[in-house]
Design goal:
CATH topology of the largest domain: Chorismate lyase
Oligomer: single chain
Structural class: alpha+beta
CATH architecture of the largest domain: 3-Layer(aba) Sandwich
C-alpha cells in the first residue's frame, strides 16, 4: 500500500516541477485518495506534513493551496549591517521583541572567544524577530559583563545590540569567521518560533568585534526559520 511519505515526496516533486503553480488549489483529499487507492486519512496526513514543511497552506472550507515560496525574504547572511536595518531597507513590516537576558553557564568555546575565564559572568540576550507579525528568527548574543558592566540590568530591554554598542562608543564593527549548520527545532524553539518539528532551522554562529580597538563585543548565535527566507552568503 502507498504510504503518506511517498505521497508527500511526489507532491513536493510536482510542486517543484511547476505542475502546481503558486497559490493554485490542490486536489481534494477524496480526489487524491481515489488516485492513490488509499484511505482519505492517508491523504490528510500527507497534506499535514506538506503544511508543516512549508509547501502548502489550507483555507477553512476551501481546501489546500500551494504556498507562494517567492514571498520568502531574501537575506544576505554576511556583512556588518544589523538584521533590523536589513529588514527596514527592504521595506518589511518588522518588529523585535526582547525575550530574555540571563546569566549563562560556562561554555568553553564561547568563553574563550570572549576572552574571559570561568569566574567571569557572561549573559545571553535573546531577541525574537518578527516580519508581518510572524516569528522568523531568534537572535542570541553572549556578552561578557567585564566589557559591559550594566548588561545584567539593561539586557532585558535591548532590541538591537548594534544600537547598544553605539551608545557605548563602539561604531565600527567586523564579524568573526562564521559557521553554518542545520538542525531541527527543540521544544523551546518550536514554541518561540511558532514552527513545527519538521521545519529545519538554519543556525549561524559568529562573533562581533570593534574594528578600532579590537574589543570582542559578543559571540552570536542566530537561528533562522528555513521556510521564511532565501539566503545569500
Amino acid at each position: 500500500m502507498v504510504d503518506e511519505m511517498l505521497i508527500v515526496d511526489e507532491m513536493i516533486a510536482d510542486i517543484q516541477s511547476g505542475k502546481y503553480e503558486q497559490e493554485e488549489k490542490l486536489p481534494s483529499e477524496n480526489e487524491l485518495a481515489d488516485q492513490y487507492l488509499v484511505p482519505r486519512i492517508t491523504i490528510r496526513k500527507a497534506y499535514e506534513r506538506l503544511q508543516e514543511l512549508g509547501y502548502i497552506y489550507s483555507k477553512q472550507g476551501k481546501g489546500s493551496f500551494v504556498k507562494d515560496r517567492k514571498k520568502q525574504i531574501p537575506l544576505m547572511l554576511s556583512g556588518n549591517v544589523s538584521f533590523s536595518k536589513k529588514m527596514s531597507e527592504m521595506g518589511y513590516p518588522f518588529e523585535t521583541r526582547a525575550i530574555f537576558c540571563e546569566k549563562t553557564d560556562y561554555n568553553k568555546g564561547i568563553f574563550q572567544f570572549l576572552g574571559v575565564d570561568k569566574m567571569d559572568k557572561v549573559f545571553k540576550i535573546g531577541r525574537l524577530r518578527l516580519v508581518d507579525q510572524t516569528p522568523v528568527a531568534l537572535h542570541i548574543s553572549f556578552v561578557a559583563q567585564s566589557v559591559f558592566q550594566d548588561i545584567e540590568a539593561e539586557g532585558r530591554d535591548i532590541t538591537s545590540m548594534f544600537d547598544y554598542y553605539h551608545k557605548r562608543g563602539f561604531s565600527e564593527f567586523t564579524s568573526a569567521s562564521s559557521t553554518l549548520s542545520v538542525k531541527f527545532p527543540s521544544k523551546f524553539e518550536r514554541e518561540v518560533l511558532g514552527c513545527s518539528s519538521l521545519v529545519p532551522l538554519l543556525v549561524l554562529e559568529s562573533g562581533c568585534l570593534d574594528q578600532v580597538t579590537g574589543t570582542v563585543l559578543e559571540c552570536t548565535k542566530i537561528i533562522y526559520r528555513s521556510d521564511r527566507f532565501t539566503y545569500g552568503i
